[in-house]
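Quick question, first post here. What does this chain look like in 3D?
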Amino acid sequence: MSETEKAIVAGGCFWCTEAVFRDVIGVTKVESGYTGGATANPTYKQVCGGQTGHAEAIAVTFDPAVITLPEIFDVFLGTHDPSQLNRQGNDVGTQYRSAIFPLDDAQRAEAEAAIARWNDEHAGQKAVTTIEPLGDWYPAEDYHQEYWDGEGQRNPYCLAVIPPKLLKLRKSFAAKVKA
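> Answer (accepted):
Ran it through. Tokens below.
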């Protein structure tokens, strides 16, 4: 197996973005967590309250021999609405912002290119996805990890929001979906 790489993105509820990326070929791990804020060791309740400055985010570990960083960013931008400022659907606040947290200058350049591609493909819309410095990464509490595969299947919010995102993934990125 080749070396893995990591990308950190935020696209609203981390249960939703995690569910999408767990179905992407070449993705070996998805961890839900918090970044981009000022409070050390924030809790889910604090982040959801919007007082810490953190975003609900995911750390995506992937095999670049199977899926490239530009493809990761394209899937990210293509499976949520990057044109909504500080919200995804009914989730409102900076904790639900669309953001990419590059690990280095090369990732920053790829993030800028991905946003430009999205804007070019969506005339009349503009991505408000921010590119932010990666602050400290705080893994979310254990019960948030692999949420869709467990509790999420019984959560009415998840049942309303996640299946349409998974359908969008299958429709727009069929060649990148696990069998």
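The first helix runs from residue 14 to 21.
The domain at 5-176 is CATH 3.30.1060.10 (Peptide Methionine Sulfoxide Reductase; Chain A).
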